[in-house]
Specification:
It is a single chain. The protein is an alpha+beta fold and about 220 residues long. The protein has a single domain, classed as ECO RV Endonuclease, Chain A (3-Layer(aba) Sandwich), CATH 3.40.600. It contains 4 helices and 8 strands. Helix 1 crosses helix 2. It is globular.
Length: about 220
């Protein structure tokens, strides 16, 4: 079922509200935390967890922002049509040179998307800090399948982690087909896994040689 949130202008309205809300925060961080993107990201996540339900208004049903750090979601809610959203808040401080955030496990996403009523959404916040003043320069609120594979990559952790290759370059294909995106995910993994197998073979050979070296040495 297509989400009215993401297949209408409602998501653009939410993006505008998020930017206006964050830009209105005057005392954003204590001076001791200004150099820490993690501290800023945590503060942004906490503020949005408290306010996103209000921004969603009558469109939002059940709502929660109480999740462990390793959970798939920072925020989760159902909408008035019975669709279920988990929202991962990702922040990018634009004066840092490189940012390559993990989004989710490929296996976890594959299982989650077996139910067509589920949406894994990303709330991407770009910002910079001057003194303690936060300025949001961009907000993107999309389901993961709207992100083009040209700006994504797979990280070698567990089954594989979907990552944004560079937070300075995010490509959004609004309205993109979930079926087509998931097939592209599978194609990406079917290319990725054999390369990982080849790397493992090289590592096995390397440490077989290391073992042989140490077996040949006399005991001290």
């Amino acid at each position: 079922m297509k989400s009215r949130l993401f297949f209408s202008d409602l998501c653009r309205d939410i993006e505008t509200k998020v930017a206006a809300f964050l830009n209105s925060q005057e005392a954003f961080l204590p001076a001791s935390a200004l150099g820490s993107p993690r501290a800023a990201g945590d503060a942004i996540e906490e503020m949005l967890g408290e306010r996103l339900a209000d921004m969603l208004g009558d469109f939002c049903g059940e709502y929660s922002a109480d999740f462990a750090r390793r959970a798939m979601a920072d925020i989760a809610f159902t909408d008035v049509d019975g669709l279920y959203y988990v929202v991962d808040v990702k922040t990018h401080r634009t004066d840092t040179r490189f940012n390559m955030p993990n989004l989710t496990s490929v296996e976890r996403l594959a299982r989650f998307y077996e139910d067509g009523k589920n949406y894994f959404a990303l709330l991407l916040i770009s910002y910079h800090l001057q003194n303690a003043r936060l300025t949001v320069t961009g907000v993107t609120f999309v389901p993961i399948e709207f992100l083009a594979w040209d700006c994504l990559t797979i990280g070698a952790l567990g089954w594989g982690q979907i990552q944004i290759a560079d937070s300075n370059r995010v490509i959004v294909n609004s309205g993109y087909s979930r079926k087509r995106w998931m097939v592209e995910l599978c194609d990406t993994l079917l290319d990725f896994y054999p390369k990982e197998i080849a790397k493992i073979g090289e590592r096995i050979e390397r440490f077989q040689r290391v073992k042989d070296y140490w077996l040949a040495k006399p005991d001290d």
